[in-house]
């Protein structure tokens, strides 16, 4: 594969474009929004120092980006299609109707959807629903390795195999879900944490800033290295996970029963937004994003240098 179509060039699409350019692909991008090409080229330029630090493939260049006005034209010349349109079923159906019509047979149509079921999106593919798969990245896509590959009811197994191989060859760390579920895996895990975080704020137990600090300066540091199961296993010492489950399982079950159930009311939403505003008072958000990405860059390099990490 040499050419990737990026359909939709917002935050996620621009990150994908920068990543694929950095991996030595030709990228043909499309987005109907006014000024989309200028914004995309500016975003790729802004991302390029980070992409460069992460390592460029031979021949990688932002000059290999081409912008076209029509999604069908982009799909017709692509070896792989990465769609990043709005999270609306009607928009997805209309868009994938065009992509399915224009793409050559056998070209995978991957959606970056963060939670829609691939079987639902595939209703928009009148010819080849078997080639549609979710390829959900994590923001920012040009930095974070994870891609969730999710098949729908009609997705051919060999399409999932090929998508996994493609993302791996493109420098990603894909995981393969056995079946579709709303929100996939990582967003469902995030949603569970957000539910309790929102509840703690709503109940006045901790502030937005304190909850951010509790994760960023506590378990989040370990989670950036190993996942929840391996972290639990290591915390059990010689007894490992079996010891943790035997000794901390009962109190953990009690905590589960006490977790908050929240409704995102206008009042709670206003409280959360105000909390973030207070936490960021006097902070340059662009500088914050740059600092985040610089730390992620160094973290990824450090992890890559440790062969004992999974």
From TrEMBL:
GO terms for biological process: fatty acid metabolic process. It holds the Pfam family 3HCDH_N. Residues 3-179 form the 3-hydroxyacyl-CoA dehydrogenase NAD binding domain. This is 3-hydroxyacyl-CoA dehydrogenase. It comes from the Bacteria. Keywords: Oxidoreductase. Belongs to the 3-hydroxyacyl-CoA dehydrogenase family. Residues 183-251 form the 3-hydroxyacyl-CoA dehydrogenase C-terminal domain. The keyword Membrane does not apply. SUPFAM superfamilies: 6-phosphogluconate dehydrogenase C-terminal domain-like (SSF48179), NAD(P)-binding Rossmann-fold domains (SSF51735). The keyword Nucleus does not apply. InterPro entries: 3-OHacyl-CoA_DH_NAD-bd, 3HC_DH_C, 6-PGluconate_DH-like_C_sf, 6PGD_dom2, NAD(P)-bd_dom_sf. GO terms for molecular function: NAD+ binding; oxidoreductase activity, acting on the CH-OH group of donors, NAD or NADP as acceptor. Pathway: Lipid metabolism; butanoate metabolism. It comes from Amycolatopsis australiensis.
